[in-house]
Amino acid sequence: MRALNWRWPSVDDMLAPRANNLTALRLAAAVCVVVSHCALLKIGVQEAEPLAGVMIFTLGEHALHAFFYISGLTIAASLVRADSYFEFAVARALRIWPALMVVTIVLAVVAGPLLGRLAPAEYFADPGWKTYIASGLLLSSSGLSLPGLFVDNPHLPIADGSPWTLKYEVICCAAITLGALAISGRAALRSSTWVMAATLASAFYMVVLPPGARETHLDHVMRMWFAFGLGVITWQFAAKLRPSLLILAGIGIDLYLSLGTALERPLSIVFVGALVLVLAAMPAGAMRVWTNRTDLSYGLYITAWPVTQALVERWPDMPLWAVTLATLAIATALAYLSWTLVEKPAMAMKPFVVRLARLLHLAPRHVALPRPMQHSFST
Fold first, then answer.
1. Gyration radius from the chain CA atoms
2. What separation in angstroms does the CA of 287 have from each of 15, 55, 296, 328, 331?
3. How confident is the model at residue 6, as a pLDDT?
4. Is the CA virtual torsion 275, 72, 98, 62 positive or negative?
5. In a 10 Å sphere around its CB, with 0-12 CB exposed, 13-18 middle and 19+ buried, how is residue 248 labelled?
6. pLDDT tens sequence across 145-194
7. How far apart are CA 320 and CA 53, in angstroms?
8. Domain coordinates of the chain in residue numbers?
């Protein structure tokens, strides 16, 4: 009877802690990225990825749009809810860098000499492994290779290509923070119009981008911001919005009619956002409970690429389906270790880091101001 009486909640109610499936959807998006990357790394060309040739964006790119939409939806709430800009920045840094640096160092110091073609002495004599670690700290290691590692694979011998999007998430977080500073403060972010203006500008940019054009750094910024900005706008109107299957179907029809046209890029991202809202609100029982306690999405995202590269190098004749299943199994185990040993403890260190920074006079002492009552997703 309870299921029969269920109705779509408002987005505001849905964003209450543990009242949504957003963590599960991030995990599903990470799985989609892994599936897409397995095809890329096994066959060696982007045309091998699911949906390539059917739509402008591949399955992995659609999943990235879901990531950024969810980030916009939740990070805006986190910024307003935070006691200070500094605490917000610390929280974001502890979510991104610790796990990434552990994976980067393990790749450079352990996987490189063990799995690569060079002897350990020759490997460590090459400065490339040090450059890789330094680049990882700057979120710029995703296009780099390690000496002698994965050199004969079908795709480029990139050690870990997945983290290329992290710098764009930092850019989006910085943009919304600077925007809040430029207006009346974080509390005014709920009613500010600059986010909508910037999001509409990025949509226009995508529309005028020539079909089939190779994306530049600016193109990536505009695309990721559009997904992120849509999430922020959804949060701004959270009290008035509800997920809707009818609206989702209407956007889906528009997207289908736009395939191959200039409107496909923005409409596909709008469709992904609407789909996220619908799936996030649906009852999920034990899956919701478990994923809200154990977030494997980030660990899976940053570890799967090198796992696939290692499998393809060690067993080049392994079929794609087996590579994909093996990658998901191994990377999920690594993601669990990452969450348990690195990510969760790192996030728990936020109060200590903030107190230490203030004791050392590295951050301003903050007097908490009254904040607007709201439901928000916990970071």
1. 21
2. 17, 31, 13, 18, 19
3. 66
4. positive
5. middle
6. 999 999 999 999 999 999 999 999 999 999 999 998 888 778 888 888 99
7. 19
8. 11-359
